[in-house]
Specification:
alpha/beta, 7 strands, globular, Rossmann fold
C-alpha cells in the first residue's frame, strides 16, 4: 500500500507547491514531462498518484482526456479544488489499478513511485493499463538536492522520511525486468543547479545536452510500450465426412 498522505501532509504539500519559487521549478519539470511523452490532443492519460493535481494541468492544457488516481482522499480533495470537473478522479493504489488492460494511451507517475510499497508492481500496473507510453518522474537519488533531502530527513521530520529515492538506472532496470532488455527507454534530468532557476539559468536547464547529465534533481524516464493484445481460446470445429473409415 505504501505511504498514504494524511490531511496535514496534503495541506503542507499544497502550500509548498504554491510557493512562487517552487512554481519555477515545476514549470521546468512540466516542460520535460510533455516534451518527452509527446502526447497528442484527444489522447487519454492516467496520472497515478495525482496528488494535488499539479501534474495534471499541463496535460489538460494540451487537450488530453485526463484521469487521476490517488490513495489519499485529502489529496483528491485538493485536486478537485485545483482542477475541478476537467478530470475524472478515482481513489485507489498504484499496485492495484481499477482499470481494464490498455484503457489509456499513456500513464504517468510523477514523484509518486517514491511513496508506493512495491515500485515494480506499480510499474507493472502502469504497463498493463497503458498502451503507448509511460512517463515516470522521480526525485533523483544522485542529485545534490536529493542528498540534501535525505540528510534533512535524518535530523528532522519531513515527508522525505517516507520517500524512497531512485536513480535513472534503477527505474530503467525495473522496466527491463518487466518488459525485456530491448524495450525503448529514454531519460533526461532537470534542476541541475540547487538554486531556484532564474532567467539566465533557465536557458541552461533547457539545453538538451545539459539534460543528459544524470545528476539533475528531477529525472524523467519514458518507456515506449510494445503493443499487447487480449486473446481468448477459439473452439475448433471439425465435421467428419460421412462414410469415412479409420485407416
Amino acid at each position: 500500500m505504501g505511504y498514504v498522505f494524511d490531511f496535514n501532509d496534503a495541506v503542507a504539500y499544497e502550500r509548498w507547491a504554491n510557493d512562487s519559487r517552487i512554481r519555477k521549478t515545476t514549470r521546468l519539470e512540466d516542460r520535460l514531462m510533455t516534451e518527452m511523452l509527446k502526447p497528442i490532443k484527444g489522447e487519454t492519460l492516467l496520472d497515478i498518484g495525482c496528488g494535488t493535481g499539479k501534474s495534471l494541468a499541463p496535460f489538460i492544457d494540451l487537450g488530453l482526456q485526463v484521469t487521476g488516481i490517488d490513495a489519499s482522499p485529502y489529496m483528491l480533495d485538493a485536486t478537485l479544488r485545483n482542477i475541478g470537473s476537467r478530470v475524472d478522479l478515482y481513489r485507489g493504489f498504484a499496485e492495484d489499478l481499477p482499470f481494464e488492460d490498455n484503457s489509456f494511451n499513456h500513464a504517468s507517475l510523477v514523484t509518486s513511485l517514491e511513496f508506493v510499497d512495491d515500485p515494480a508492481k506499480a510499474l507493472e500496473e502502469a504497463c498493463r493499463v497503458a498502451k503507448d507510453r509511460i512517463f515516470v518522474g522521480v526525485l533523483n537519488r544522485y542529485a545534490l538536492k536529493g542528498v540534501h533531502r535525505r540528510l534533512k530527513g535524518i535530523f528532522s521530520h519531513t515527508i522525505y522520511n517516507r520517500a524512497r529515492f531512485f536513480s535513472v538506472w534503477e527505474v530503467k532496470q525495473m522496466f527491463r525486468c518487466l518488459l525485456g532488455r530491448h524495450i525503448p527507454v529514454s531519460w533526461r534530468t532537470v534542476s541541475q543547479l540547487p538554486a531556484v532557476p532564474g532567467t539566465a539559468t533557465m536557458k541552461f536547464e533547457r539545453s538538451g545536452i545539459v539534460q543528459r547529465f544524470p545528476f539533475g534533481a528531477f529525472a524523467g524516464i519514458v518507456v515506449t510500450l510494445v503493443p499487447r493484445f487480449k486473446t481468448r481460446p477459439l473452439t475448433v470445429r471439425h465435421h467428419a465426412e460421412h462414410g469415412a473409415t479409420a485407416g
